[in-house]
Specification:
With 253 residues, the chain is an alpha/beta fold. It has a single domain, classed as Uracil-DNA Glycosylase, subunit E, CATH 3.40.470. The chain is 39% helix and 12% strand. A seven-stranded mixed β-sheet has the order 1-6-7-5-3-4-2, with helices on both faces. Helix 1 crosses helix 5 and helix 3 runs antiparallel to helix 6. The radius of gyration is 18 Å and the shape is globular. The two termini are 31 Å apart. Bound molecules: iron/sulfur cluster (SF4). Iron/sulfur cluster binds next to helix 6.
């Protein structure tokens, strides 16, 4: 098993960065690149946050669909037999989530792909391997964070989840986040970001600011699958990771 430093070097090599880049909070905040958000960057409130106040994470589930679960495992068991939308018809497995239920950071993608549908775990395959390498640059591994999707079953042909499917699955999403109660949410990719933040702004704009989801700071990053298709964007992903590491480091300071 390679050490963290080796993984970091591998990632930097892959994205074409050949000069050392800072990874600790102090260094990253001094970085001159305009890809790093400045201290005190604008927090854009989520439209969901203004629905009512104070807002709980269950605010997006309607009363008749809200999940009454006894912990994360119980909610996952309930979700495993869900047939609330048409995505249940072609799925192999419900992909609920994976990782540490006590994690401070939760990563959220859009929906399972083929590999995830087969294995029942989010972010496997090449995109998952890249996410693992990105985590290592943060000094973490998969067992220290929690990884999930907005929608728990695979859309056919990997199409985007439809609004009705997102709404149907929000019962699990809300219950899951309520149990996890993370300190930071990281939204991976356009679909996840636009769905959770209820916006049609492009990802290139969304990733430049911190957002808010019911009081939880939210960062938006490129999806690892997109980074595999567009390796030139990995440099931007690096600056996002530095910012995430800075914010994560500030949790304990
Ligand atoms: S996508 Fe969500 S709501 Fe639809 S069947 Fe799967 S678990 Fe149920």
């Amino acid at each position: 098993m390679p050490e963290h430093a080796e993984f970091r070097a591998l990632y930097l090599s892959e994205i074409g960065v050949h000069t050392p880049l800072p990874v600790n909070s102090a260094d990253s905040s001094n970085k001159s690149s305009n890809e790093i958000r400045p201290e005190g960057a604008t927090v854009v409130p989520s439209p969901l946050s203004s629905r009512s106040g104070p807002v709980s994470l269950s605010a997006t589930s309607t009363a008749d669909t809200a999940v009454d679960g006894n912990g994360l495992d119980d909610i996952a068991i309930q979700a495993s037999s869900c047939t609330a939308c048409q995505l249940s018809e072609q799925r192999t497995k419900v992909v609920f989530g994976v990782g540490n239920p006590e994690a401070d950071i939760v990563f959220i993608g859009e929906a399972p792909g083929r590999d995830e549908d087969m294995k029942g775990e989010p972010f496997v395959g090449r995109a998952g391997q890249l996410l693992d390498r990105m985590l290592v640059t943060l000094g973490m591994n998969r067992s220290e964070v929690y990884i999930m999707n907005t929608v728990k079953c695979r859309p056919p042909n990997n199409r985007d989840p439809r609004p009705g499917e997102v709404e149907a699955c929000s019962r699990w999403f809300d219950a899951q986040l309520r149990e996890l109660s993370p300190k930071i949410i990281c939204l991976l990719g356009r679909v996840s970001a636009q769905t959770v933040l209820e916006t049609d702004k492009p990802l290139s704009v969304l990733r430049r600011n911190w957002h808010d989801y019911h009081g939880i700071p939210v960062q938006v990053m490129y999806h690892p699958a997109y980074l595999l298709r567009s390796p030139q964007q990995k440099r931007h992903a690096w600056s996002d990771l530095c910012e995430l590491k800075r914010r994560y480091g500030s949790l304990s300071s």
